[in-house]
Give the backbone structure.
Amino acid sequence: MLVDAGLDDRLRDAIAFVAAQVRRTVERYPGVYVMYTRSGRWSEPGAPWSHGWLPGLLWLLHGATDDPWFREQAERYTWPLEPRKLDPSTHDLGFLFLSTFARWHQLTGDPVLRDVVVTAGRTMASRFQPAGEYLCAATGPQSLFVDIMMNVGIVLYAARATGDEALRDIALRHCRTTRRVLVRGDGSVAHEGVFDPATGEFLRQSMQQGYRADSCWARGLAWSLYGFAAAYRDTGERALLDTAELNADYFVEHVPADGVPPWDFRAPAAERAQRDSSAAAVVASGLLELAPLASSSAKAELYRLIACRILDTLAGPPYLARGDDDWEGVLKHGTYHHSKRLGVDESLIWGDHYFVEAVAKLAQLRKETP
Ligand code: GLY
């Protein structure tokens, strides 16, 4: 793989910065599950759906540094999530448990940890709407969000662990419905699909966090790209790979040269100046998932190159918060919820998490194919 020789060093330095920054956060706000900053400060606890990423980041930093302190903290923040395995109020159980208990189980093989993830996977599967064939969003049975593509993996995890074919079937039906109603022919995505839950009739595309129903919210595209790639990895269903590649093509064609997208690709020009570094981090990790699965070696090489481009950008100014001692997050210039003005031009915990995940994946790929 062709990577600028200096990139490895820059990423190593960046991870050292992340480790110091996250340690400072945990020491300053012990036990708090941070979500997005306000003027660079983790000033309040995050919403319950976001509680998986800080422990997920601690697990990743343990892997990257081998420092037992990160392992202790990862366990400390992971265990309190256990009762949420039965939480029917969120569609984000994949975010919550695949970043935490699944990583812990991978390290130890303890079946108790695996069973927590399996139970969460069954809870997630209970969101299935048989008429429309999708896992519904927290907003109600009529609603399908593109973000759920990043959470459907927990249903596949439970299917694999238990051999329960019904779970696999639910997950695949969800993926196929998402592809049919949310992914457009040019590879862009809608955030939300609205159904008649009684008949299953698809009514319209809609949005929650993007600019408009017919726009392309950058993080939604990122969740779709990564989610379809992971679902293809777990199922081998070719249409899912085609969908992830279609999303990747859209991203590559429309993203600015530095690899960091505007918060919505189709927002008016003046609003597109606001970027979303977290979407870039998710895409980098998603492209590194997709590259080894890609349908051609040319695509695989392109995906790796774009991922490297993104990481190179994020590892320096103006994105990496290094040098700004008052800033508590890792990546600046994320956008959580533009229209509600929440977490706009701030650090977002999932951006920091997927940045480290992507760097770890790149390091692994470099080991396998130096
Ligand atoms: N709702 C998940 C996100 O903000 O990406």
